[in-house]
User: Fold this.
Amino acid sequence: MRTTRAFALLPGSTDGPDSTVLQATTIERRDPRPDDVVVRVTFCGVCHSDLHALDAAVGHLDGPFVPGHEFVGEVVEVGTEVRDRTVGQLVAVGNIVDSCGTCAACLGGDEPYCAEYPTTTYGGRDRIDGTPTQGAYADEYVVRADFTYPVPAGLDPAGVAPLMCAGVTVWQPLAHLGVGAGTTVGLVGLGGLGHLAVKLAAALGARVTVFTTSPGKEDLARSLGATDVVVSSDPQAMAAVAQTLEVVIDTVAAGHDLAPYLGALRIDGTLVVLAIPAEGWHLDAMAVLPRRRVMGSGSAGRPDTAAMLAFAAEHGITADVEVLGATEVDTALSRLRAGDVRFRFALDLSR
Ligand SMILES: [Zn+2]
Ligand SMILES: [Zn+2]
Assistant:
């Protein structure tokens, strides 16, 4: 085993509505196997899932728990069987670090839906040795090389980190629904996922309508590439957009009424719901009657991830990030909990 500094929730640590307290500590990682690389983490995004995972872990820990599943870093060691990674190379890693590789989903490049369940970057179990996976709020990560992606030259590494979870999560439905020039796309929830959905959809050539509860976000939405902004509490504005959109991407985390957004879809339109509320979704049968579809989606497989990064490089797209030192992780988590973030925090592991 090898050790690395990490920021962890420890057994007995507190976590609650006002604060999350992570401790700088030392954790163990496996020694790299022949198909692994060792990555010195430079930037790690702070995802809403990290907050949810920490909340769920409090009181149930018998060891450290380290979040972080969208990161970039420098390859510092390369396993003997790895042919396409080199020491010094900048790579990015998302929220899946392994899968069976042989089931239909894996063979189709849909590793998130692996029949044996993919290995998550933290909170999972290594497929070979069974040890718990620990995330990238840490100086070093050991990972199968096949689940690393070269960071395209010219993109800000801190802004690339959130592409690996938030970015791929919105990219996958855009790509699989064939969003392109002239497609009418709606976006609900202008946060970490939402701002990337607007950027990516606009770069694909779509006409993007942002739904917001805050009229003050109109300029911000347009600056990201939105064509139209609809204040969702305005019944007249909602009526005007009814049956006009081909795709609506809904990124709002909490359970909410889908009917207004289904109503914005044309016949054959698709509502993509990216949150997974514990209580599930209530569907109004009449609202889906005009051959409308509701589609779930999560993360992305290796081919889609590589395609997203290539597209981001071509169009100069990264996440808008506020970079904080890794030692300020508690501030990042508290502010994220309070909604006080302009799209995404990235932790700089060098400070
Ligand atoms: Zn995430
Ligand atoms: Zn599989």
